[in-house]
Task: inverse folding
């Protein structure tokens, strides 16, 4: 409750139009159906069991309302949940740690990216996956810059977004991404929305 | 040597003599004979009489306190008596006995059959019917007509003297016989009904007894038929029809005697199995063996043996599992005592209580075996208690960890988030006032709050991984591999869900295994989790230095679930039963 009130206040202050608030999954789905917002912010823990109701609701929104983006907030650094969210609908979704949202700039950026059809994955999760200890680490093949680019791809940034962040040209990013996919033997199209899921699944699978 | 034994030894030549005497008498005067007139009849006569006496003696020697044995042997003698009413018997005493005991065999035999195998009649109805059959056979058809029967007056001049004769009265003699036959049909039918009822009752509990009762009923029914047919004639006779029925009767008696001997042989085998059990004690008979041996010995398949735990006073079976002592209809409970203390309770067929001494005798033989198994059952029950208590301790611990994790998330973490938010607001205001020193302080405070949040999250996850309960072992182990300080290779990991304690135990095994491998400077750990015959098997392998820690806490946790932990130098294998 504390978090919801805070987020509403933050978004109001930032000029974002908050059309509705809901107590539980049922209320959330009803408001989404009526208000058709650009995006919904969903806590992964909701009544009645406080386990993964938020994740189930997020998937329901994405299935029933393809135009509505969903940002899931969680207190867990759990790649499993993020992957579960991405598996069925690899775009217009986000998975952020709860404490992230009080960084207004970050929250607004995430909402904007989701509304634009991108994916947002919390950097903590991506860095944990990238940092996972491997016996024969294929990531060792990558240069420092390539690893940076890989992490940003995993966080869901577009080539344009990556270029903007790293202060390099979009074409350079494109070249890096192609190189990374080649080195790691990733089969997915490096330009598609599905590349986020492909990268995360790859990072998780190669032990 | 006991009196009973002298009797039994004396009876053997007596029975042999009585049989041979009967057959020679019959052969001497076939016109008056029942069965001895022909070779086949002679064999039937001797076979039936001797088998009754033989089976009776055998039973008597096995069960000296039981009335059935002597009763059955006497019935065997009585079987020969009708033959002595033959004029060729030669002696007045024999002749008189033959007249009085003409139908003595029937009530004696029926009495024995009704009392088989306990030697006692079960109810007042039994007693009344048996008593009237004795009266009807020995007095109305035996003694009374004999007292008025003058053989010479009836035209038998070569007949010996009738010692019981008071005054010859042929009319009265015929009247006694006629009424005797009419009343006889009454008590014979009553005997038939009682025997049939006994057969129905015994069929549920003791099949052996039921089998023996069939020829008994056949015999009484044959006698009834003979009586019914003699009504027209007014007197029991020995025409060719009578002789035919009489041979069938001999056959039925022989069959009953055979069943009695069969029951004794089976008893002996059952007792031998009980004795074997006592001998086998040194080799630890399997749990429940005592019950099975007792059930066999006592011929009661529904028998139950429950041991009383001295500590709780509750009853357990041979395996140590709690049982209720609840006798069904027709069952009784006999407590087994050591001194004044009940050590066990036997739930058995109520009929077994009818034979005093049988239960006591069998239980005395099984005493050592019973006490031995009682001790083992007690130990097993205590072990089971202990295991359940260990499992409860582990479960309580897990529940507590889970509660702690939720408290951290819902309490401290929420507060930190709120603090973080307030700091952000403060930063925004300070930014407006352009106080750079305060701004630096607030930024540092914000960073610390965020670090604290991260630490708290890790702490909560370490206390209890929420993902384990929510998404299962496979997902939780993936996260474990994400965070591990060394490469963790997840091989085959079952995607099935198990009970919370089982999943927690498997998860802890991997956590401890990874931690231990890291301490022994391994460069990787491989993990497999599979299911095999109702058990979850967790296998860890690494390349670190040889393990020195026995991982006692982990072994305790696994042991609490009835599982086992095999700790090798660089391997770890936990086997946890999963229902």
Result:
């Amino acid at each position: 409750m504390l978090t919801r009130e805070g987020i509403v206040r933050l978004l109001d202050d930032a000029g974002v139009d908050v059309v509705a608030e809901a107590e539980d999954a049922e209320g959330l789905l009803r408001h989404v159906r009526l208000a058709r917002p650009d995006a919904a912010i969903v806590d992964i823990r909701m009544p009645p069991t406080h386990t993964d109701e938020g994740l189930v609701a997020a998937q329901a929104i994405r299935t029933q309302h393809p135009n509505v983006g969903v940002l899931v907030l969680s207190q867990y650094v759990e790649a499993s949940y993020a992957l579960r969210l991405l598996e069925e609908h690899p775009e217009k979704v986000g998975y952020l740690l709860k404490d992230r949202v009080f960084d207004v700039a970050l929250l607004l950026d995430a909402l904007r990216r989701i509304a634009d059809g991108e994916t947002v994955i919390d950097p903590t999760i991506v860095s944990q996956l990238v940092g996972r200890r491997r016996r024969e680490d294929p990531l060792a093949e990558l240069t420092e810059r390539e690893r940076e680019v890989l992490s940003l791809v995993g966080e869901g940034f577009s080539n344009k977004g990556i270029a903007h962040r790293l202060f390099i040209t979009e074409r350079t990013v494109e070249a890096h991404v192609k190189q990374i996919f080649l080195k790691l033997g990733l089969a997915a199209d490096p330009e598609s929305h599905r590349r986020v899921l492909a990268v995360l699944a790859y990072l998780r699978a190669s032990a | 040597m006991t009196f009973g034994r002298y009797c039994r030894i004396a009876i053997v030549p007596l029975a042999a003599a009585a049989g041979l005497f009967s057959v020679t008498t019959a052969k001497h005067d076939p016109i008056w004979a029942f069965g001895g007139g022909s070779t086949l009849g002679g064999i039937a006569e001797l076979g039936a009489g001797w088998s009754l006496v033989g089976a009776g003696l055998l039973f008597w020697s096995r069960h000296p306190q039981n009335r059935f044995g002597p009763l059955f042997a006497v019935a065997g003698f009585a079987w020969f008596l009708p033959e002595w009413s033959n004029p060729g018997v030669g002696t007045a005493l024999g002749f008189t006995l033959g007249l009085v005991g003409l139908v003595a065999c029937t009530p004696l035999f029926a009495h024995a059959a009704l009392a088989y195998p306990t030697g006692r009649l079960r109810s007042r109805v039994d007693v009344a019917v048996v008593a009237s059959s004795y009266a009807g056979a020995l007095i109305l058809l035996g003694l009374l007509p004999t007292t008025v029967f003058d053989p010479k007056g009836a035209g038998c001049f070569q007949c010996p003297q009738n010692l019981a004769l008071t005054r010859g009265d042929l009319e009265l003699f015929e009247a006694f016989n006629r009424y005797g036959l009419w009343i006889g049909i009454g008590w014979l039918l009553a005997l038939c009904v009682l025997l049939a009822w006994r057969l129905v009752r015994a069929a549920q509990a003791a099949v052996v007894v039921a089998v023996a009762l069939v020829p008994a009923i056949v015999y009484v029914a044959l006698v009834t038929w003979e009586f019914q047919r003699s009504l027209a004639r007014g007197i029991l006779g020995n025409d060719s029809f009578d002789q035919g029925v009489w041979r069938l009767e001999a056959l039925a008696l022989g069959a009953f005697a055979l069943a009695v001997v069969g029951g004794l042989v089976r008893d002996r085998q059952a007792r031998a199995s009980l004795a074997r059990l006592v001998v086998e004690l040194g080799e630890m008979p399997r749990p429940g063996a005592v019950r099975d041996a007792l059930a066999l010995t006592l011929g009661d398949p529904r028998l139950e043996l429950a041991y009383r735990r001295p500590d709780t006073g509750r009853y357990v079976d041979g395996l140590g599992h709690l049982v209720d002592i609840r006798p069904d209809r027709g069952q009784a409970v006999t407590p087994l005592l050591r001194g004044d203390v009940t050590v066990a309770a036997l739930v058995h067929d109520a009929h077994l209580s009818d034979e005093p001494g049988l239960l006591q005798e069998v239980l005395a033989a099984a005493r050592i075996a019973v006490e031995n198994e009682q001790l083992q059952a007690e130990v097993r029950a205590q072990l089971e208690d202990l295991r359940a208590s260990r499992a409860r301790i582990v479960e309580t611990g897990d529940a507590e960890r889970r509660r702690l994790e939720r408290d951290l998330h819902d309490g401290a973490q929420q507060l930190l988030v709120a603090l973080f938010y307030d700091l952000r607001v403060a930063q925004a205001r300070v930014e407006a006032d352009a106080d750079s020193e305060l701004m630096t302080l607030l930024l540092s405070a914000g960073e610390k709050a965020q670090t604290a949040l991260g630490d708290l999250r890790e702490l909560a996850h370490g206390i209890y991984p929420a993902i384990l309960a929510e998404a299962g072992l496979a997902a939780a182990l993936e996260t474990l591999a994400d965070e591990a300080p060394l490469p963790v290779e997840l091989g085959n990991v079952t995607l099935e869900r198990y009970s919370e304690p089982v999943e927690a135990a498997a998860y802890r095994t991997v956590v401890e295994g990874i931690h231990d491998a890291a301490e022994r400077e391994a460069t990787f750990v491989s993990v497999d989790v599979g299911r095999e015959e109702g058990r979850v098997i967790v296998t860890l392998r690494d390349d670190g230095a040889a393990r020195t820690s026995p991982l006692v806490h982990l072994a305790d946790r696994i042991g609490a679930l009835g599982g086992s932990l095999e700790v090798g130098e660089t391997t770890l294998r936990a086997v946890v039963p999963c229902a």
Remarks:
- The mean pLDDT of chain A is 88.
- The beta strands of chain A are 39-43, 69-74, 93-97, 119-121.
